[in-house]
Amino acid sequence: MKIGKKSEEAILKAVEGKNLKTKIAYGEAAFYGPKLDFMVKDALGRKWQLGTIQVDYNLPERFELEYMGSDNQKHRPIMIHRAPFGSMERLLQSLLNTVQGSFHCG
To answer: In sequence order, what are the beta bridge partners of 74?
Structure first.
C-alpha cells in the first residue's frame, strides 16, 4: 500500500472513531500529503477553517532526514504540521464576530 494512501486511511479512521462529520475534498492545496481541516461557523453562520493537521512527506525527503529505527535500519520520518487554532488573526476574527465586538463582563 502506498504510504500516502495509508495515511489518508488513518486520518479517516481517526475521524470516524470520534464520530466527526466529514467532507472529503480531493485536489485541494495539500500538495505534500493528506490533511484534516477543522471548519467552524461564526455567529453569522459563515464557515471558516480554523485548525488544520497535515502529513508532510516532502520536507523530510527534501532535507534528507533520517533516523535509526529499532531494526537498526535508516528510515525517513514523516513530518506533521499542525495549527490547532489556525492563525491568530483568524481565531481573533472569529471570536470578535461571535461576541459582536463586546468584551464587557456582567
So the answer is: 68
Length of the chain counted residue by residue: 106
User: Could you state, in order of their start, the residue ranges of all structural domains in the chain?
Assistant: 3-98
Query: Rounded to the nearest 10 degrees, how much is the dihedral formed by the CA atoms of 26, 30, 36, 40?
Result: -90
Instruction: Measure the CA–CA gap between 37 and 35, rounded to whole angstroms.
Output: 6
- Rounded mean pLDDT of 83-105? 77
**Burial class of residue 48 (count of CB atoms within 10 Å of its CB; 0-12, 13-18, 19+):** middle
pLDDT in tens, 62-74: 999 999 999 999 9
Question: Quick one: how far is CA 26 from the chain centroid?
Answer: 15
Q: Is the pTM of this model over 0.70?
A: no
pLDDT of residue 1: 53
In degrees, to the nearest 5, what angle opens at C-alpha 86 toward C-alphas 57 and 90? Answer: 145
User: How far is the C-alpha of 57 from the C-alpha of 34, rounded, in Å?
Assistant: 10
